[in-house]
Structure formats: C-alpha cells, structure tokens
Prior knowledge:
Elements: E1 3-8, H1 13-17, H2 19-27, E2 31-38, H3 56-71, E3 75-81, H4 103-117, E4 121-125, H5 134-150, E5 154-159, H6 162-174, E6 201-204, H7 209-218, H8 234-241, E7 243-247, H9 259-264, E8 266-267
Parallel strand pairs: 1-2, 1-4, 2-3, 4-5
Antiparallel strand pairs: 5-7, 6-7, 6-8
Amino acid sequence: MGTIVSFHAHPDDEAIGSAGTLARAAAAGHRVVLVFATRGEHGEPVPGVLADGEQLSLRRSAECYAAAEAIGAARVEFLGYIDSGMMGEPTNDAPYSFWQAKVEHAARRLAVILDEEEPDVLTVYDDNGGYGHPDHIQVHRVGMRAAELSAVPVVAQGTINRDWMVRGMSGLQKAGELPEDWKPPSMDAPTFGKPESEITHRVEAVDFVEAKRDAMRAHASQMSPDHFMLAMPDPIFTMGFGTEFYIVDPEPSPAAAPDLFLELFTPLR
C-alpha cells in the first residue's frame, strides 16, 4: 500500500478540495496524511457556534481531526503559521503569517513530515491557489519546493475545472434538476480554477461524496447546515464534488509512476 500526503492552507480546505481523493485512497488501504499550514485563525465563525471564551483556532484544529476521521486519514499535522486572511487585507503583512513565510524555510518544515512519511503522492494547489487566496498560493510554492527537497515522486496540484463546472450546471439545468431559485457561484473570474486544457488528471470519487460531505460538516464553525455547499441538492453536490481535478506536471512515466498514483488518478487525455 502507498501513502498520500495532502497539504492545505486552512482547516476545511481539505474537506472541500480533496476529501474525495483522500477517502478513496483510505478505503483502498492507503495511508492518508493531512498537513495544514495554519489553523485558520481569521476565518469567519458561524454566529453562535463558539462557546464563551472559545478560541477559533482551537475549535478549527479540533474540527480537522473530526474531518480526518470522516475520510479515514491516519495523521494530522500543523506547520504553525498564522492565517493570512484574504488577499489585500492587512493580515497579509502580519508577522508569522503564512504569506510572509520564507518559502525555503516553510518547505523545510514540510519536508520533515515528507521525509518521515515517504509519500508516493503529495497534493497541493495550482499556482493561483484555486481562487487567488494568498495562503493557497503559498501552499503551491511551499509544497512544490518541499517535494523537491524530499524527492516526492508525484505532486498533484488540486484545482477547479471551470469548463467542467459550466457544462455540468448547464446539463442539470436542461434536465430540470436545478431548483428554480438556485444561483450557482460565479465562475467568470479568470482567477477561479483553471481551464480544462491545463488540467491533466481527475479522480473519480462519486462513491465517496457522503464521506466528503461528512468531512465538510465536521467543520461546523465555518459551515452551518444551511451553508450553500451543504444545502446543495444531492445531484448538484454529486456533480460538483464527486470528481476532483489535478494538474500533474511533470507527469511520471507509466513505468516509474507509483501504484497509488496509477490507481487513483485518471488522465484527462
């Protein structure tokens, strides 16, 4: 059996982005490890969810372990940086924020875990962090460098397939499966995901969408039951979250590719 390490910026990113891949890997007997750069200190908690005096960072850390259990992850680690907030906010410049971290230093922190785990695959984000969040961009930079330091065979950059999402929404609309009042999120911004032409692989995780939804529910400080993702009708949730997309560049030759990679990741072309 193999090992996959999944590197994320904040608690709940793993549930939204790669939980299907990770749950499928764990169900097949592979070792799954989650690493978070920050504890999500600058998230916006659901009103009334925190107890008096409860720190958001501690709550979100605990939620990571609950989400890890939902997807079958065996280990959870934190690199110890501070959440940088959204791009352009003053928190970007705060000392010890992940956005301000020196890439080489942060990569060496991550490489300690990679050296221990010797993963077949490391997941990070694409070069724009999926949607331009500074910590997500930094995950890409740090993760790619850490993979070099630890000689990880495959780095899979998680991304959003803009073209596939548009096709899927159009198909559901034509089939009458979209509620009349359903308003899909805007996907017009060039910073949102990647065009399909740049994406190399997908992971089919339709059979694990409930594990993914359970992982999302575990992050209750960020997602109330009526959060637009959790409130999606089943067909929309399955379409939107049942397939996860990645950019693998460079791609290993079939002869050199780890079995875990070949088992989970299907080439788009």
